[in-house]
Amino acid sequence: MKPNKVIVVLIIALIASPLISGCVTHEKKLPAIEVCFEHYVAGNKHILKIDYAKATLISKKEAPTLYPWYNTPMTGIILFAYDMTGVKNMKELGMRVTPSTFVPLSKQGKIIAYIGFKSPKDVPKKGDKMLVVVQVLENGREMAEAHTNVVWDINWS
User: Fold this and answer.
1) For residue 134, what pLDDT is reported?
2) pLDDT tens by residue, 36-82
């Protein structure tokens, strides 16, 4: 093969390589708590029921907007979790809370939302116990609340 043909073949191989391999990029998954719940309004009463909550890994595009507890919208459906591992009294809970996730109050029916973590050091360890809380707030007033427990069952680093 002539040197010019070798160069052309090499160039084609370099260009085609990502196309042949499928140009696969592996997105790093983020740890989160997936919460499936139902929210309805009957008359003026909010009805809230958690179907399940579980540890999961999500894509960055699924990641929720995280609100610090002092800046959470006061009208909406608010989700957060407490790390209950090793908690001996209720005073400790305030220091071990995740950021909040917000769902508009107008949303009704079956809803799936995610609770995220501020930083990798805040992600629970396998076996840690979490208390998941879902609250309906209207102008800062609690209209309904539901909670459930989750045992973190994912190794993440």
Assistant:
1) 97
2) 999 999 998 999 999 999 999 999 999 999 998 778 888 999 999 99
Judge whether 156 lies within some domain.
Answer: no
Q: Is 157 part of a structural domain of the chain?
A: no
The per-residue b/e assignment along 109-148, b for 16 or more CB within 10 angstroms, e otherwise, is eebebbbbbeeeeebbeeebebbbbbbbbeeeeebbebeb
Q: Could you tell me if residue 25 is inside a domain? A: no
* 5 three-class SS: helix
Identify whether 142 is part of a domain: yes
Give the domain range for residue 69.
30-151
Distance from C-alpha of 65 to C-alpha of 103, rounded to nearest angstrom: 10
Task: Measure CA of the first residue to CA of the last residue in the chain; give whole Å.
Answer: 50
Cα distance between residue 117 and residue 105, in whole Å? 23
The counts of H helices and E strands in the chain are 1, 7
Tell me how long the chain is: 157
What is the tally of structural domains in the chain? 1
Does this model's pTM top 0.90? no
Q: What CATH number does the domain containing 56 carry?
A: 2.60.40
